[in-house]
Amino acid sequence: MSEQKTFSGEHNARDLRVAIVASRFNEFVVDSLVKGAVDALIRMGASERDISVVRVPGAWELPLVADKLCKSRRYDAVIALGAVIRGDTPHFDYVAGDCARGLSAAALESGVPVGFGVLTTNTLEQALERAGTKAGNKGADAAASAVEMVRLLRQLDA
Ligand code: INI
Question: Active site residue: 91, 101, 134, 154, which one?
Fold first, then answer.
């Protein structure tokens, strides 16, 4: 029998306080991500009253609010949801790049897991596929990853 220790978090959201920060830009897509994330949290055992949803204008604004929520110590996990869809200008690269870097920094600086549910796609169709149609729901995936990370970090602390 192997003697190595293995650590891995469970998808158990019981008694966790979770903040979802979601952008209004491409609202139709992002609303499906929010629904996917909330449904997943409830399925994992979270209570609806422990879930807060905060809206921001666009994906570029997600990091500032995610950072504030992480540092508030009021939440066990933060889930960031948005949809950046490539247009004809380099705007996409700035918004998507700064958003990803900022969300990563919010998690690393606070130690609070941040689920990354920001779609970066070439077309609206690709975004819709990832928001609950053909290719699953990336909001639900981000929620599952954030919960798993909370549990994993607690195991590593114990
Ligand atoms: N914001 C998005 O969330 N998705 C996009 O696709 C997008 N595009 O394409 O421009 C977008 N821009 C707005 C940006 O996030 C800021 O809200 C805006 O620049 C004001 O700071």
Answer: 91
